[in-house]
Specification:
about 260 residues, Immunoglobulin-like, about 45% strand
């Protein structure tokens, strides 16, 4: 049986031990920004203007790429420009790439100045919820730069509109270099894109059409198309896009057919 003196001595020993070995300090709470996964940058974030010099219409295009997103909001100098949210069976899996185009109203119906007023020039922030295979990854963010510098359309030189060409010979495709904007200002062209496709309805289950699409340096305005690409008795549509340094692009289009 412990005596009163024994209890007092035991208490002194325990107190001394506590002083000699103090408890470890409590971990400081993490800031709210670190409580969840850190923000993941988008792998690509682009917002551009596409003008059709042949049909005289204009619209906007956007492209994002990420490890996985569930919602995205585009915000620019004029406020919120676009909001996207994945819903349904695939929403928790996460989306990665997204390319979109707006409706392209004819300039005669919606004047170009009115169209451009929808998205003012400047920096656009793209941010939203990141998700991968059902697991939240915090936020994903990126920025896109939009200008109103719209290049003039290339003048298509060869083949001439509605020309009939031989399918057994290589076809020389050429166009004039673009040296100004649609308003006559200075422009820096960084690339041309050439697209040639069969003029036919696409396969109902295949994404894309039979054809070719290539990006060429700004110094190239002519290229041979091998005869192996062409089929006899076939109609083709072709276009060339002039792309300026902020990504805006203007296309000119035409058509030809083979014998």
């Amino acid at each position: 049986m412990y005596t009163k003196t024994t209890v007092v001595l035991l208490g002194i020993v325990l107190l001394a031990a506590a002083c000699a070995y103090p408890p470890p300090p409590m971990a400081a709470p993490r800031p709210a920004a670190q409580a969840s996964a850190e923000s993941t940058p988008l792998k690509a974030a682009k917002l551009n203007i596409e003008h059709n010099a042949t049909d005289e219409d204009t619209g906007f295009q956007g492209f994002v790429d990420s490890e996985g997103w569930q919602s995205l909001t585009f915000t620019g100098p004029g406020g919120e420009a676009l909001s996207l949210t994945g819903r349904g069976a695939l929403s928790n899996l996460g989306l990665t790439e997204l390319f979109f185009e707006t409706v392209e109203p004819a300039n005669a119906d919606v004047p170009l100045a009115e169209m451009l007023a929808l998205l003012p020039e400047g920096e656009y922030t793209i941010e939203g919820a990141a998700i991968e295979s059902g697991e939240s990854k915090g936020q994903t963010t990126g920025t896109a730069w939009l200008t109103h510098q719209i290049p003039a359309g290339p003048t298509l030189l060869s083949p001439e509109a509605e020309a009939v060409v031989s399918a057994s010979d290589d076809l020389i495709v050429s166009w004039s270099p673009v040296t100004a904007t649609i308003s006559g200002g200075d422009v820096t062209i960084i690339a041309y894109q050439l697209i040639i496709e069969r003029d036919e309805k696409p396969h109902p289950h295949m994404i894309g059409k039979f054809g070719l699409s290539i990006y060429l340096p700004a110094t190239v305005t002519s290229i041979p198309i091998p005869s192996e690409f062409l089929e006899p008795g076939t109609s083709y549509k072709w276009e060339v896009l002039a792309i300026e340094e902020s990504g805006n692009q203007t296309l000119s289009s035409s058509a030809f057919r083979t014998e």
